[in-house]
């Protein structure tokens, strides 16, 4: 198991974040750290992703940073250069996966069916994102996949404070991701206290 996987297992919950304003990066990082989740998956759904990763990395050198919604090799390069620890993609793109493997970059690609798991295993991958988790069958699908394949999953997509227990109770689940702790609307409005409370509530699920 890689050190990134070990850190994900320890953290168990990864806030998935879209940054629309670079001024939000430091207060958000501080809020996550102070409330118990020193990690973030910053998605390339906004144009600020690479700059946000860089700012977060510079300000909080020890925070675990994933780059999310990575769709291209250029985005892999931008994310790694900015200081991302690992790459997450919504789907399984062999080109991006091979590029990451060739460059010793940890990638957790998305899968949601047996054929994709097998393709990922062919590349030697052992940790996969299960996305979109709830629309793809949720824990029932994960149980079925885990009965067959010796891989670990990081489900995201539709996970909330109300169903995370069901996911975390599965041995095959390394960690869960989601936007519910730091939704864009609250980030854009600078609601750090509310986000802090959502993060604390999520952390209570781990105790
Ligand atoms: C992701 O990018 O991992 C998901 O879109 C997060 O899904 P959620 O908004 O349902 O948590």
UniProtKB/TrEMBL annotation:
Keywords: Carbohydrate metabolism, Lyase, Schiff base
Domain of life according to the entry: Bacteria
Pathway of action: Carbohydrate acid metabolism; 2-dehydro-3-deoxy-D-gluconate degradation; D-glyceraldehyde 3-phosphate and pyruvate from 2-dehydro-3-deoxy-D-gluconate: step 2/2
Xref: SUPFAM superfamilies: Aldolase
Enzyme class: lyase
GO molecular function, one term: 2-dehydro-3-deoxy-phosphogluconate aldolase activity
Gene: eda
Pfam families (alphabetical): Aldolase
Quaternary structure note: Homotrimer.
Family: Belongs to the KHG/KDPG aldolase family.
Protein name: 2-dehydro-3-deoxy-phosphogluconate aldolase
EC number(s) given by UniProt: 4.1.2.14
Catalytic activity: 2-dehydro-3-deoxy-6-phospho-D-gluconate = D-glyceraldehyde 3-phosphate + pyruvate
